[in-house]
Design a protein that fits this description.
Layout (H helix, E strand, L loop, with lengths): L29 E2 L11 H13 L9 H15 L8 E4 L2 H12 L5 E4 L6 H8 L3 E4 L3 E3 L2 E3 L2 H11 L3 E5 L11 H13 L3 E5 L15 H4 L1 H4 L2 E5 L2 H4 L7 E5 L2 H13 L7 H13 L1 H25 L4 E3 L6 E5 L7 H11 L2 E2 L1 E2 L10 E5 L4 H19 L1
Parallel strand pairs: 1-13, 3-4, 3-7, 7-8, 8-9
Antiparallel strand pairs: 2-10, 5-6, 9-10, 11-12, 12-15, 14-15
Helix pairs in contact: 1-11, 2-11, 3-4, 3-10, 5-6, 12-14
């Protein structure tokens, strides 16, 4: 659990580190963008993968009942959510699952609602699959985001929306939605016969005072209209192993989802993903507790540094996730100039706010799941760039 340890990820086929030139970024830029962590996965996962490697046969694989029991114990102990074995559908990833749900549950031309600014594949997949994108823009006021419920319902009615993709906890604005907020969203969706695809991949990352609620479990009726997307990949830094656990209680929705999954040619899961998921959920709890403490410490560093040395940059206080939303609008730079400043003057590779859609202008997303010394180095580089440019 040495989260301070700096691990060299170069020449490991890392998207984050080895493709800087290919993505057109400057040599030597410090990457704090894509949502994977710079920490080793728990030793229990590494040991399980090594054991599988020593066995030496990587044939077609499927999960047995012990896999389901591991999932059941995890979601019950962490979220007090009781799942059933028939609900489970495994996919290579949450994005893959959301795309499958879009094709399975809507037709070309149907309206699908998202809440921008939001994780860009949400709206990209809608458009790529020739559906109509409808946005219920989150309201940014006094440093916090909220939902315009009147607009949410109005957009559903006017567009005759068939599907709503919920991001919970929300990426990039960091909200952990409250019981009241989830109830209001769900009641509106029930009223207008809207199916909910709930992306809960960041559920294991919440900060003190906040608790993730599984949308499908907020009210019994919500379970019948929801596709719940989960994965251990963000929690335990396993994104490259491609395993996600999707839960669909409604038989008809599950049948349509599985049928679309078959059309894609996907049938069996990655044996290493299965192995890692089981090991992480069975033995990774203590590691995750310490990780969340460490992330809270990184957030403390970021918060105090901005307050003391970079008051021009506003922290949108995250309630969950290790992805932090920063407001750079006070610098007075348009988005193209801001991106150039961050990359070429501060030497940082962050995610530009514009990639998250409407409302992302003037913002940047930073990944704080890195050794504290790396985060401190990034902040010092940013401070020096701002002093050089604006003083």
């Amino acid at each position: 659990m040495d989260f301070d340890r700096i691990i060299d990820r170069q020449n490991t086929d890392s998207l984050k580190y080895d493709f800087i030139k290919k993505w057109g970024k400057p040599e030597g830029v410090l990457p704090l963008w894509v949502a994977d962590m710079d920490f080793r996965t728990p030793s229990c996962v590494i040991d399980a993968l090594l054991e599988k490697c020593r066995h030496g046969i990587f044939g077609y694989s499927e999960t047995r009942n012990d896999y389901y029991e591991t999932l059941r114990n995890w979601f019950s102990s962490r979220f007090n959510w009781s799942i059933r074995p028939e609900w489970l559908v495994k996919t290579p990833g949450v994005v893959f699952a959301i795309c499958t749900a879009i094709r399975a549950l809507t037709d070309e031309g149907d309206a699908i609602l998202v809440q921008q600014p939001v994780y860009s594949p949400f709206f990209e997949m809608i458009l790529e699959n020739k559906r109509k994108l409808v946005t219920n823009q989150l309201v940014y006021s006094q440093g916090k985001y909220s939902i315009d419920f009147s607009d949410f319902e109005d957009k559903i009615i006017k567009s005759n929306a068939k599907l709503f993709i919920l991001c919970s906890p929300h990426n990039p604005v960091g909200r952990v939605w409250t019981l009241e907020e989830l109830l209001r969203l769900g009641e509106i969706c029930l009223k207008h016969d809207v199916t909910v695809v709930s992306d809960e991949i960041h559920a294991d990352f919440t900060y003190p005072g906040h608790r993730h609620l599984v949308f499908a479990d907020v009210k019994p009726e919500f379970s019948d209209i929801t596709v719940t997307c989960t994965s251990p990949t963000k929690t335990f830094n396993l994104a490259g192993l491609h395993i996600s656990n999707i839960f669909i209680a409604n038989r008809d929705i599950r049948r349509k989802f599985k049928k679309e999954l078959e059309k894609s040619g996907h049938s069996l899961s990655n044996i290493m993903g299965i192995t890692a998921c089981r090991a992480a959920y069975e033995g990774g709890s203590n590691w995750l507790i310490e990780l969340n403490k460490y992330l809270s410490g990184n957030l403390d560093l970021l918060r105090s540094f901005l307050k003391q040395k970079l008051p021009q940059i506003k922290l949108i206080e995250p309630e969950g996730t290790y992805l932090v939303w920063l407001d750079f609008s006070a610098l007075g730079l348009d988005d193209k100039k801001l991106e150039d400043f961050i990359l070429n003057e501060a030497g940082l590779w962050l995610d530009s706010g514009t990639m998250f859609g409407i409302g992302g202008e003037g913002f940047q997303r930073i990944n704080i799941a890195c050794p504290r010394s790396v985060l401190e180095k990034a902040l010092i580089q940013l401070e020096q760039a701002i002093l050089s440019r604006f003083n």
